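Hi everyone, sorry if this is the wrong subforum. Our group has a chain we'd like a structural model of before ordering constructs, and none of us has done structure prediction before. Sequence below.
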Amino acid sequence: MTARRTTASFSQPAGSPESGEPVFLVVGKLRRPHGVRGEMLMEIFTDFPERLEPGKKVYIGEARQPHLLRSRRRHGEHLLIAFEGLDTPEQVGVLRTKLVFVRSDEIPPLPAGDYYHHQLIGLQVCDDAGKPIGKIVEILEGGAHDVLVAQTASGGEVLIPFVDEVILKIELENAIVVVKLLPGLIPGT
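Answer:
Right subforum, don't worry. Here is the predicted structure as tokens:
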């Protein structure tokens, strides 16, 4: 079981969009122009940067302005990307610090047992007896496994290891995650 990064939009929660609009997922952040041919350095926020292929439509900034990728290549831990019709550093410079989005309905499904982060954010967490614990508000990456951060009704946080021994069931259709609480996961238990 793994969680994959494709971050939910900051302005719209994960899940079903309001009024039939698509959900947009953040895949990167534009940093600065690079060279003289309209390339830009992009910080990567997705586990799948290889899916950002030339010809792919991405959406830039809060206005979600559509742009077609002209090229993409690795540059250290970042990508160098260029857009159709933007051929100079001055043209792409106006995009500096803007987020790059893709539509959630255009991302491929993952194998069984793997989940995109945006699918888990907002799900309710309960223990195996049905007692509510909280709502997933963040996923921490690192170390041996990811950690779900569930915010309790009182505003506290419970850190839940994203491992098979703890995560018993994920029901996306019911917006719930069932967990087996290990001693010490919730303060006072």
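For your construct planning: The chain is about 5% helix and 45% strand. The first strand starts at residue 2 and ends at 4.
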